[in-house]
Amino acid sequence: MIDFLKLFVHVVVSPFKTRAQLEAEIVLLRHQLNVLRRCVPSKPKLAVADRLLFVWLYRLFPSAWVIPVVVLATAAAVIASMLSTER
Fold it and tell me: What is the pLDDT of residues 69-86, one digit of tens each?
């Protein structure tokens, strides 16, 4: 309940912060983000058990893992298809 009251007070007070306070908060958050990026490895290392779990889940639910294919088109191809549908 105390956490909810803190959140409510923060939401009520936050629109009245000065520009300097907002900029200081942004600088502090950017610094925290940079420190976090340095501490956490960029790519997670999967153990053998993790890979076996993913294989097992894929075999149980193969349709859930299908990644939609993104089709890249050139501007000329898009314009040509638009012109052909208008006629």
Answer: 455 667 777 777 778 765
Q: Token digits for 36?
A: 């976090």
Alpha-carbon distance of 67 to 29, in angstroms, equals 34
Q: For residues 23 and 14, what is the distance between their CA atoms, to the nearest angstrom?
A: 13
Number of domains in the chain: 1
pTM of the full structure: 0.38
Range of the domain at 38: 2-65
Contacts of residue 57, Cβ cutoff 8 Å, sequence gap at least 6: 65
In a domain, 83, yes or no: no
Q: Does 73 map to a domain?
A: no
**What is the per-residue pLDDT across 26-37, written as a single tens digit (0 to 9) for each?**
899 899 988 888
